[in-house]
Design a protein that fits this description.
Mean pLDDT: 94
Distance between the termini: 41 Å
Number of domains: 3
Structural class: alpha/beta
Strand order of the largest sheet: 3-2-1-4-16
Strand content: 15-25%
CATH superfamily of the largest domain: FAD/NAD(P)-binding domain
Largest sheet: 5 strands, parallel
CATH topology of the largest domain: FAD/NAD(P)-binding domain
Helix content: 25-40%
CATH architecture of the largest domain: 3-Layer(bba) Sandwich
Length: 478
Amino acid sequence: MPKENALPLKERMKIARTGMPELDPAVRSRNFEEVNQGLEEAAAVTEATRCLACAKPACVVDCPVGVKIKEFIALAYAGDYLAAAAKLREDNALPAITGRVCPQENQCEGGCVLGKKGVPVAIGYLERFVADYERQSGKLGLPANAPATGKNVAIVGSGPSALSAAGDLIQKGHRVHVFEALHELGGVLIYGIPEFRLPKSIVKGEVDTLRKMGVEFETDVVVGKSVTIDELMQNEYYDAVYVGTGAGLPQFLGVPGEHLNGVYSANEFLTRVNLMRAYQFPAYDEPIYDCHDRDVIVVGGGNTAMDAVRTARRLGARTATLVYRRSAAEMPARAEEAKHALEEGIVFHMLTAPIEFLGDEKGWLTGARCVRMELGEPDASGRRRPIEVKGSEFVLPANVAIIGIGTNANPLIQSTTPDLKTTSRNYIVADPATHRTSKRGVFAGGDIVTGSATVILAMGAGRKAAASIHEYLTTGKW
């Protein structure tokens, strides 16, 4: 048992929350180094001291993967960081990743008792510290795997949902084989989130840890084309399949001029920069329409749009502007990312929507015709609906426009698995509790079921699916 925190509760409540050291905005806006620098050990112990060790910790209830937060923080407080890492990995296969990109403020930290009258414990900072300590020590705090069951599970995709499911299933004793369509593992973690927010070495490290736990990985396999779901089950003898492919088909605005040269989807732009390393030019000579000394606008208000506009700034954009049709209060992007963007010189055009992209006689983008918006009554999302202000048109200069308004489901697996029920928008239909699909032995979760969501919500789906897969493989009942 770790040593108990002897400091009285009232004294713990007086300790100020530990801040996260950050790179200077003037420096970081011109490079791809990680913005948040992580806590030193003394700061981490001080922050762990703040935890009240509640009898019924609401932080755990509000964590989509159910991390045993009180226990891992107690181990961190005691200085047993490898044991803390092992405790994290019992429920979270990717602690170094979620410690960086999870919106803790809306989840675990949102349930922290200290946040009711003050500032919650920095759970995400502590999670990152423990995971980084583990990596830097060269040792692993791994949970034990159950004895081998002889059952084989195929997982399609290697994003957060798939990796989370893999981590749980390998602990339960099943053989787990992950199939990835691209040449690198990590899904959206590797192609979608920029280096300055999530270094690729961190993703690769977490994948390597899963490999050491026994998970098998295979890249360059396009399930639905290279091999079908039916072939995996009938010819390669997998007892269950989990589809965690995400939703990577980009959405566009559907306005005139989107065909012009210089208009990207955020998916393509970020993939070229991150996965194909355009940010390391000339060491990597990946074709990308250069943002340097050009006016760049990014359309959208989520984390993907924020990642794209901050990336454009780092690639040397003359101006980097975020265009969003609602107000800042409705933006789904994390507050920390918006703060960082403003510090880095990003221009925000709120309550603004493009209605046409303008180009020259050679077909190159020159600007975006926009209108002002005002907010009306709430729509299905619960946010107030943006309404066009008549007579408010104006033109924003732009040589590059990046559309980051969301994604849809890629239909490849669905089109080659005829007995797999889908929605009208091609998302796979799966029971929200068990993640079972209409096809026996096939489970699905994450963005391919729900549409675009956060990394941690996708991981939560992976965990629930893993529990359901284990029950099916154990009982044989469908």
